[in-house]
Amino acid sequence: MDLALQQAIDVHPVITFDVYDTLLRRIVFKDRDLWKLVDQEWEKRFGAKSFDFYAERSKADKIARKAYDYSEVNIDEIYEHLSNLIGEDNAKRCKTLELEFEHTLVTPNKPIVDAFYYALSKGKDVYIISDMYLRHDDIESALHNIGVKGYKKLFVSCEYRATKHESGELYKIVSQDINVDVTNILHIGNDRNADINKARAIGIDTYWVREQSNTHYIDEKKSDISLDFSILNGFISKYSKIEDNLAYKLGFEVFGPIISGFLSWIGQHKVKEKLDKVIFLARDGYILEDICKENYILGDTEYFYLSRRSMIVPMIQYQESLGDILNLYKSWPTKSSATILFDKLGLENNFNLLYQFGISESEEFTKEELIQDSRIVKLFESVKHIVYENSINESNLLKQYIESLGSNVRIGVVDLGSGTIYNSLVEFTKYHNIDIEWIPLYFQNTQCPNHSYMDISNNFDLKSALRFGYLFLEIFFTAPHGTTMGYISKLNKVQPVLSKYEYENCLDKYKNRLSDLHSGAKDFYNVFPHQLIDETSSLVVFSNLETFLLHPSNLDIEYWGEFPFFENYYIYNPMIKNINVVEYIKNPKLLVSDIQSSLWLSGFLRKLMGNNLGIEVISKLYRIKAKYMK
Predict the structure, then answer these.
(1) What gap in Å lies between CA 591 and CA 610, rounded to an integer?
(2) Fewer CB within 10 Å, N or C, the chain?
(3) What's the rounded Cα separation, in Å, for the pair 325 and 127?
(4) Among candidates 567, 559, 568, which has minimal Cα distance to 603?
């Protein structure tokens, strides 16, 4: 709590609080967007097209205020006039919806709610004063929903026909009602005129609740595009706390909406595809399955330990040559040491074997060079029998592990999208006559748009933004354990064998950032009113990712620039390389090379230029190219 506020409470026996944007906030970006929500819910609940409730409600509000000569009208009087515009039955239904949203779609303004309870703990007499057309019981219900209880009395302008904002008459009524001199009162509110100027004018001390400067990864301008944007942006801007660290904030504001949308999409496809079960592949599915278990959603789900290695090694037995084996792996580094061969063949590293065939551990190869080098071929021939024997053993264990899922079932396979594991799973199942039908549920796979949540084929803005930092998706989906190397049988149960967690020896601050990313996203999922927006719309749920990638701040650069990204075989590189402007001037080709190899392009450009101008220029070029290529 702000020290000035605490001290002000300490020296006043009576504390009064404003309600809206002081103790609580509506989660829509603009308060009157709540009326647009009534429009939307009308169509959902009653199956009939709305009659532009927003416009008619606004009109009725103006008519009611002109019809009466007192300072504040109430919601009943407004709806009397609305009945004349849309009919009595329609008005009753709309009023029920509006009040439902007023009661529930609110979030506490935590610092001020903390001040409220601090005042109570100090034995202060606490009252609440609101300029509002809602009735006492409606405001009280909203306050109770955010946990605000224990005040002595609630004063509402529409019930006293007097306001704060006009002449401060409501303050005088409160002072007389509670029989306290105004000099003993501290009023806390957000409106400069109604809560500060008018209160001070009659001798009441005040504390101004100002809008705190808070970093948000939202584009406020989009709040006017649609109600979905208003709800999402309003919720984030009013729910996020200034003290949240940047990892938690990125998880809450950027990845929270994304995984909420993905899980909603998975739920729809589970019904559509008539799936018996959904498995989330390790490791990308860790956070998703964790949320499912905590919230009891999607029914029968399981976190399933599969990896490229654990799927491909059992398939080696069916390949004839080293080239056939290595071609099972679709993803390869440009160059790597010969030790990569052991991993791809399912063996432990054996440096002595390398030396035996005249191969240095520092020598680097492309995949084609590994296949063609005579030394490598001879090495492979010497261990071929071990490789195939290991493949058969791993195959038997994998078969048992897969069969633990059941038989004669349709199972959805949640994967980020390369398709390597899914395709291997389908092929392995056919080889071993396992009675399971697999349905892919990709996060993004351009080859299977009908089975992908994120379709970027026509979303050129998102397609462009991802080129500036798509690796943040990989960082977010990182699980806090190593990859699946294979399997072992213990007590008649097949269990995964995991490699060392790649971030295990990293500084705690980096491991904590990964944890905070997940915590932020989970907290978003747990508190966001999912039913109110179309979470499967990539235009909406990926908007904040676009904002983060295209408009990084200096704080983002400082926080994430040094973060170690794990690429392959325990090679770590910072998200932003060290930038040497002098060297770039001497050697422009180095600049081009560093731009092309940058893990976080927008971060690199921001750090290089000190602004986002370069990002804007390149982003426009990307969008033009994407449209032209299409």
Answers:
(1) 16
(2) C
(3) 75
(4) 559
Rg of the chain in Å (alpha carbons): 31
CA–CA–CA angle 477, 479, 480 (5° rounding): 145
Distance from the first to the final alpha carbon of the chain: 54
- Which region holds residue 406: left if phi is over 0, alpha if psi is between -120 and 50, else beta? left
Are the beta carbons of 557 and 603 closer than 8 angstroms? yes
> Dmax over Cα atoms in the chain, in whole Å?
100
- Say how many CA atoms lie within 13 Å of 612 toward its Cβ: 17
The 8-class DSSP code of residue 153 comes to E
d(CA 560, CA 544): 17
Give the Cα separation of 194 and 196 in Å (integer): 6
State both tokens at 347: 């063996």
Positive or negative, the Cα torsion across 539, 542, 545, 549? negative
pTM value is 0.88
CA nearest 82: which of 103, 51, 104?
A: 51
Q: What DSSP line would sit under 472-488, residue for residue?
A: HHHHHT--SSPPEEEEE
Residue 411 pLDDT > 80: yes
How many Å apart are CA 338 and CA 599, to the nearest integer? 25
Q: Which of 7, 21, 197 is nearest to 113 (CA)?
A: 21
Residues sharing a CB contact under 8 Å with residue 592, sequence separation 6 or more, in sequence order? none
Rounded to 10 degrees, the C-alpha dihedral 589/593/596/598 comes to -130
Sort 211 into a burial class: Cβ within 10 Å, 0-12 / 13-18 / 19+.
exposed
Torsion angle of the four alpha carbons 455, 460, 464, 469, in this order, in degrees rounded to the nearest 10: -30
pLDDT band at 103 (very low <50, low <70, confident <90, very high): very high
Tell me how far apart the alpha carbons of residues 175 and 183 are, in angstroms, rounded to a whole number. Answer: 10
Number of H helices, E strands in the chain: 31, 17
Q: What is the DSSP letter of 317?
A: G
- 374 φ, ψ (degrees, to nearest 5): -65, -35
Q: Look-up: residue for tokens 């097209």? A: 49
Residues 278, 73: Cα–Cα separation, whole Å:
54
Task: Give dist(CA 173, CA 102) in Å, integer.
Answer: 26
The string of pLDDT tens digits covering residues 111-121 is 999 999 999 99
Mean pLDDT, residues 138-148: 96
User: Which residues fall within 8 angstroms of residue 210, CB to CB, at 6 or more apart?
Assistant: 190
pLDDT band, very low/low/confident/very high, at 215 (cuts 50, 70, 90)? low
In this model, does residue 630 exceed pLDDT 60? no
b/e map 568-578, b = 16+ CB within 10 Å: eeeeeeebbbe
Residues 136, 131: Cα–Cα separation, whole Å: 11
